[in-house]
Design goal:
Number of strands: 38
Shape: globular
InterPro entries: Pol/histidinol_Pase-like
Number of helices: 11
Helix content: 10-25%
Oligomer: single chain
Radius of gyration: 26 Å
Strand content: 25-35%
Length: 650
């Protein structure tokens, strides 16, 4: 980490501490349960990572999860009774002599133990065992005393230079034909969820091989992708002027996009300073950035020093079109995580339930304490796959960050929204959206939010190393953009969440978050419209399901309203370079249709929430780590208060 002039002394001291943790412990920073993080840069989340058993032998579990695949960046040394072989991708081109780091997986199929020595350090590999090693191409590697040749991992290449210029900060990708990414001096070697190398900035110079290189530039989801291929001359500098074209201009319409869940530091392979966040926000043209302080598995809350210094104030790189704030992610792995934007002071409680700590106070109590007049609270990554019934989430009680307390806190008005889009629910029919619509149908008024959980301290870690803002929540703001005006728009539910497509919804001219007061029996006109090359399907939904659908870009339906209802719009589509998450998806907050002053309260959805509370009651009694009867009573009292709210809606 280099000195950042934007970094105050107390934050710089904290970053130095993180650097010491990285140097001493590697990518886990000494957080004991994070041993598997060493393997995660090579495992797709969730399909491949889900196959990895987090048992005592993580290296063997990693080998088994790969199932013979050799992902980019990994070198595998296979030891078999027939001999040994080295498996890897194309040789890495080197512009000057030197050693490069290598992540080496030793995979033994031998019937007996073997000793592998790397750089003079011996490692015992059990029969049929595996070992993950960090080495370099210059490391002396032997197997039972016999040398293994690593020279084929690299090749010499002639050097040239590129100057990249778009006219404003962008996200760039420069790749040679072997898939190797190239970066300016000092830029972290980042790769996104699609394994595409990237860095941010403008008018940048970088060294590349004097051979064909592909250049791609974009600027977040409001821009298309511009691409070209050049063959730079050896020893010369080649200027590449390339500018991405806008697909839509949200700010011109009064809408501003935010990523409400980004970590500056949370373990990882580097220590990220404020300059990294500034470059990413401007390079992605992300209007609002919420950098959250949070713990990993113990008492240390990463970036708490930055929160203490900047709480309630814009971060130094904010301007008229970009607002950055320090926030917090309150974390309890049994009941759920909550992110807070616009907080004025560090909270008294940042986490519960880690180590020997009790799962207390309840999430609802903490949320009540966090509800400052200008703060916005939302449940983060609440559900991780399909959800057809409350049993899919609440039963079992695994500590997997699911938002099990959300059904309580929504009923009691303790949170403003939930992440309908997040990194761990990327299926074609996300369960998070299903729960969201159940909660709306049961009478809860929640905004659709988005947060990527991007971690700037990871350069390659599946979704968390993708750039901030690859999922966004757009909010319609009254007047100039600011932290307060954006938070107010979110509180009013004037939002939609998206991986890229622009999505509009109106009911008789009213948009998300607004209420149409009816007498009953009236017919209203509902319109949905989308912009984005990846959109394949558009639908209008009420609590009863899909009311109208089509390929888009616009659909209209007349709806007769006899009972209270809500209306949302949903857009879907396939993968597109604008969305590192792998699919196109957008979901609006609702337009509320009240009838004679009554909100929607669909009995089926209310009973669904009551069943959830029954299961949550059992979970608290059986699985919560509580030290006193009073702590148990605090949890159960909130459940009963929520139950009374839902029963009053029947």
């Amino acid at each position: 980490m280099t000195h950042d002039p934007m970094t105050p002394p107390q934050v710089e001291r904290a970053l130095r501490e993180y650097g010491a943790l990285l140097a001493a412990h590697g990518i886990t920073w000494g957080e004991p349960p994070l041993g598997y993080v060493r393997m995660m840069p090579f495992l797709r989340f969730p399909p491949v990572a889900g196959r990895m058993a987090h048992g005592p032998d993580l290296d063997a579990a990693f080998r088994d999860a790969l199932d013979g695949e050799v992902p980019r960046g990994l070198v595998v040394l296979r030891l078999t009774p027939d001999g040994r072989r080295l498996e890897h991708g194309p040789a890495r081109p080197l512009l000057s002599p030197g050693a490069v780091p290598v992540v080496l997986l030793v995979d033994s199929a031998l019937p007996g133990p073997v000793e592998v020595t790397a750089g003079g350090v011996p490692y015992a590999i059990a029969a049929g065992g595996a070992r993950l090693l960090d080495v370099t191409t210059a490391t002396t590697l032997t197997v039972d005393g016999e040398a293994v040749d690593l020279s084929g991992l690299t090749r010499p290449a002639r050097a040239a230079r590129l100057r990249l210029r778009a006219g404003f900060p962008c996200r760039w990708s420069v790749t040679s034909r072997d898939g190797q990414g190239w970066y300016p001096d000092g830029a972290p070697e980042r790769r996104d969820n699609d394994d595409v190398p990237f860095f941010h900035g403008d008018d940048l110079v970088l060294a590349v091989p004097a051979e064909p290189v592909a250049i791609r530039v974009t600027r977040g989801m409001e821009y298309d992708v511009a691409e070209t291929t050049v063959v730079p001359r050896e020893g010369e500098e080649t200027l590449v002027g390339l500018t991405p074209q806008r697909l839509y201009d949200a700010a011109a319409r009064g809408w501003y996009g935010a990523d409400l869940h980004v970590h500056l530091n949370w373990a990882g392979d580097l220590v990220a300073g404020p300059a990294e966040a500034a470059a990413a926000q401007h390079g992605e043209d992300l209007h609002v950035l919420n950098l959250v302080a949070g713990n990993v598995a113990g008492d240390r809350v990463y970036d708490l020093e930055a929160l203490r210094h900047w709480a309630g104030r814009d971060l130094p790189w904010s301007d008229a079109g970009h607002v950055a704030r320090m926030g917090v992610e309150y974390r309890n792995d049994l009941f759920g995580h909550v992110h807070v934007f616009g907080i004025a002071a560090p909270p008294a409680v940042c986490h519960t339930g880690f180590g020997a700590d009790a799962d207390w106070p309840p999430n609802g109590t903490v949320c009540g304490d966090l509800r400052e007049p200008r703060a916005v609270l939302g449940y983060a990554h609440p559900f991780h796959g399909p959800v057809s019934s409350p049993e899919d989430v609440v039963a079992g009680g695994a500590r997997n960050c699911s938002g099990r307390a959300l059904v309580v806190d929504a009923a009691l008005g303790l949170v403003d929204g939930m992440e309908v889009l997040h990194f761990s629910d990327l299926s074609a029919t996300p369960g998070t959206a299903e729960v969201y619509r159940r909660l709306l149908g049961a009478g809860n008024r929640l905004a659709a939010l988005a947060g990527t959980d991007a971690m700037l301290s990871f350069t390659r870690q599946d979704t968390v190393s993708s750039p901030p803002g690859w999922e966004r929540v757009y909010a319609r703001v009254d007047g100039p953009l600011g932290a307060d005006s954006f938070a107010e728009a979110v509180r009013r539910g004037r939002t939609f969440a998206t991986t890229g497509p622009w999505l509009e919804l109106t009911v008789d001219g009213l948009g998300p978050g607004e209420t149409l007061n009816l007498d009953g029996g009236e017919t209203v006109t509902v319109r949905a419209r989308t912009v984005g090359p990846e959109v394949e399907h558009l639908e209008i939904r009420t609590a009863d399901g899909v009311t109208a659908e089509g390929p888009g870009p616009e659909i209209t339906v007349s709806l007769t309203v006899d009972a209270p209802a809500y209306v949302v719009a949903v857009a879907r589509g396939g993968a597109h370079p604008r969305s590192p998450g792998g699919r196109a998806y957008a979901h609006t907050s609702p337009v509320h249709l009240d009838v004679r002053g009554r909100h929607v309260a669909r009995p089926e959805d209310v009973r669904w929430c009551l069943r959830w509370l029954d299961l949550l009651d059992e979970l608290i009694r059986d699985r919560a780590r509580l030290h006193t009867r009073a702590q148990l009573r605090d949890h159960l009292d909130l459940v009963e208060k929520a139950r009374a709210v839902y029963e009053s809606r029947l």
